[in-house]
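Table S2 (text version). Query chain:
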Amino acid sequence: MAAITPLRSGRSSTTSTAEQTRNATDAAVAAVFREEAGRLTGALVRAIGDFDLAEEVVQDSLVAALEKWPEQGIPDNPGAWLTTTARRRAIDILRRDKRYREKLLLLERSDLRPDQAEADDRLRLLFTCCHPALSQEAQVALTLRAVVGFTTAEIASAFLVSEATVGQRIVRAKRKIVDAHIPYRVPDISERAARLDGVLSVLYLMFNEGYLSRGAAVAMRRDLADDAIWLARLVSTLMPDQPEALGLLALMTLNMARSAARFDTAGEMVLLPDQDRSRWDHASIADGIALLEGAGALKATGPYQIQAAIAALHSEAVSWSETDWHQIVLLYDALVGLADSPVVRLNRAVALGHFAGPEAALGEVNDLAIALSDYHLFHSTRAELLDQVGEPALAREARLRALELCQNPAERALLERRLR
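Corresponding structure-token output:
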């Protein structure tokens, strides 16, 4: 979960012992809340059938923890503390409104303790937040808020929108869940595959935003990427017979395994050919490959598995020069057949350039000019290829256009270095 950092005075440049303790407490609260938010929200929804109230109460419980734990210390059983606090808060709210008398009785009869339904509660919550009746923007916001425990401000910061916009998305989404009578359940087998696609799409979007942010503030949101992996692991654990869930988790794991080498000490981006492969997390690479093999054993290939296979080939290559580009092009051919898009074709063209030469790749990239005219990676990719075929003036023009479209600080710095 994103680190929750209270405002501090900043009077001294030296971190005091008290500040270090507070930082440690904040980190502990974040870790506990990421683990407990979805479980607790799901249990409250199950108990009282009110999504809006459940989510509000869980957020209130986090605020209470942030206020009390630094002074009182972290409880021996922080999950139980949050559960008790949430239950008391919910009862207090329900007692104020006679319309909720029936829900109050339901809650008073329930202690919200984990039971066999706990895992299913979190999975139900994910599927409810990612219902196809909601827009993808609303699905992402609601998932981050209800399942992960992000604040509205954190969601707004992650996706470059105002807090008011995020708040409106969440309110509309919860209202639609109520008005459309969207059930709080995992869909049955007949509709599960289609609904799972929506869940995985949201997690994929979360991970990509964390792995390489679109915004100008930071190059990478490690916390957001980690949360996407955490949720993907939850889905794959609770639905182990779904190969694409395993494939997505494998893809995320393999990409994150290379994260330590993606930026230098100055925060500058280091491209794959120049990365120090000794800094890659080889244990995580092995885990990702094992996940991919587990997905393959289920014999139902999908786009996430193919992308994970491409990531595995990069991760297994001893050096850049030993990358199996022919196999990667073949995998992209398969990906085009399953999930064709201009971005997939752009990535295929990059791989083709390493296998068949820059002229062949440039022809395919130029064919995407209309579809990807506002995509900075199209222009930066084209610039690299133009340099390789001896067209420096056109390459400079393409980089300038990429720089106009790009906000990520590390990518901008890389483009500026190339221009110099």
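Notes on Table S2: The CA atoms of residues 160 and 410 lie 17 Å apart. Residues 18-109 form a domain with the Rna Polymerase Sigma Factor; Chain: A fold (CATH 1.10.1740).
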